[in-house]
Every structure is written in C-alpha cells, then in structure tokens.
Amino acid sequence: MAIKWKALGATLPQTQLEQSHASACQLDKLKVSEDCLFYKKGFGTVEYLPLSDLRRAYRRQEESRAIMGCCPQYILNHYLAVVTSDGSIRKFEVERKEQVEKALELLKQAAPHMEFGFVKP
Length: 121
Description:
There is one protein chain. The protein has helices at 14-23, 97-110, and strands at residues 4-7, 25-27, 30-32, 36-41, 45-50, 54-68, 71-84, 89-94, 115-116. By secondary structure, the protein is α+β, with helices and mostly antiparallel strands. The strands form two sheets. It has a five-stranded mixed beta sheet, with helices on both faces. The radius of gyration is 15 Å and the shape is globular. It starts with a strand and ends in a 5-residue tail after the last strand.
C-alpha cells in the first residue's frame, strides 16, 4: 500500500521522503530522520515537517479526565510540540514520556539550529 504524504510545511520530493522515512528512527507514531519529522496519522497517511522549517521543540503533557464507572480517572497525554518558522505550534501525541525525550535528543543531533524548551509567550 502506498503512503499518502501530507506536508505541514515545505513540500519535498517523494523519493526524498521515502528514503528519509525508511532511514528514520521510529518512536511510536513519530519518526525522526536527518531532515524530516514524520507522524503517522490515520490509516496510510503520514504528515511530515522538514527540520529546516522548525524553530523550537519541547515536551508537553496535558491531563484529560475520563469517567470510568463511577469514578473519574485522570490520564496524562504526552506530546512533542514544535514551533514552525511561521510561528504555528504543532503537537504530535506519543504513548510515553520517554519517547518524547528520545525524539528531542534526536532532534538536537539532527537540527542544531533549533532551540529547545518551552518559552512563555
């Protein structure tokens, strides 16, 4: 089955995307390569952002409340948040906090031009 590529920033040639995607490090639905950040979205669709379009990256966690039986349960959702060159913020959900930390380490190696950590607006 062919992958449907969805650009969240600058578009890249399909051959470059396929090579980069194949060599990327897999972290749940997130993949980090030397030149792109990939996120598996739905069945067969992969969103991608070139690392050259990113300005900042940080770990984000949000609490959500779910009712299970008669008691509320609080669930932590973990995200890799990135700020693009146009100032928009994108959040990519992963299963565990460790996966976000690993993604940040890979991004530090692949994109030294980026800043890391949350900054209040």
